[in-house]
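Workshop exercise sheet. Pairs work together: one partner reads the sequence aloud, the other fills in the structure field after running the prediction. Swap roles for the next sheet.
Pair: D.N. / O.F.
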Amino acid sequence: MSHPLVHNLRFARSEFQRCLAGVSPADAIIRLGPSNCISWIVGHLAWQENLYWVIRGQGRDAAPGLEELVGFGKPASTPPLDEMWAAWRAVTAAADVYLDALTPATLLTCPPSLHDGESVGTKLLRNTYH
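Structure field:
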């Protein structure tokens, strides 16, 4: 059974999907002022999970090229919504392999692979509330 914080992340993911159901590809690439578009946000959340749980957690990359497109500090972009959802699905499926193995003890660790001294639990909360 997965840790309760992993269940919280999965709930946040399901609400994210539910809230964006029915958004058209054309609407998803509209930028309002300085805000990022919806497709960018989908990709950015995929990028974060890919970075934490797949690249750093498992040493592989479920979505090569995603960081350049929607990573932290990258220029604004309007990627196609279907491509971002495909990346999000691939990344979350790969991330679940890592997340399902987390234990209460693991959540307290600060593995060097996370690069910044934050614990796995802190990263999980950061990811859930991002």
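Discussion prompt: The helical segments are 4-20, 25-28, 38-58, 66-70, 81-99, 104-107, 120-129. What would you look at next?
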